[in-house]
Amino acid sequence: MRLTDFWARLEEAFGSAYAGSIARDQVLSQLGGRTIEQALAGGEATHVVWRAVVAAYPDRVPSRLR
User: Fold this and answer.
1) Is the pTM for the entire model greater than 0.70?
2) Are strands 27-28 and 34-35 parallel, antiparallel or unpaired?
3) How far apart are CA 41 and CA 64, in angstroms?
């Protein structure tokens, strides 16, 4: 998954304002206690980060984006 696709999915699932907050502020156990931004900056593959988002917010991410 390209990084632009990742951000588009995150914004579609959470809205443009909230997506930034989720990426910056929410620590996900699925990412080893890192935020989305930290995981991506640390070289984690976008598809791995996206799977962590889906696992953390199963009710928020529509099935078509999974």
Assistant:
1) yes
2) antiparallel
3) 26
